[in-house]
Amino acid sequence: MLAQPRIISDVFSMTQGLFSSGLNGLNRANDLFARSSERLATGLRINRGSDDPAGLIASEALGARQSELGARIRVLDRATLESNITEGALGAAQSTLSGISSLIVQGANDGGLTGTESRAIDSSLSHAVQGLQRIVDSAGSDVLDDVSVQEQVGTDGFGDPIYETYRISDLPELAESNPELAQELVDEASSAIAERRAEIGAEQLSDEAVARASETEAINIASARSAIRDSDFATEVANQTRASILSKASIQVLRIGQDINRDVLNLLA
Question: Which CATH superfamily is domain 44-230 in?
Answer without folding.
Answer: f41 fragment of flagellin, N-terminal domain (1.20.1330.10)
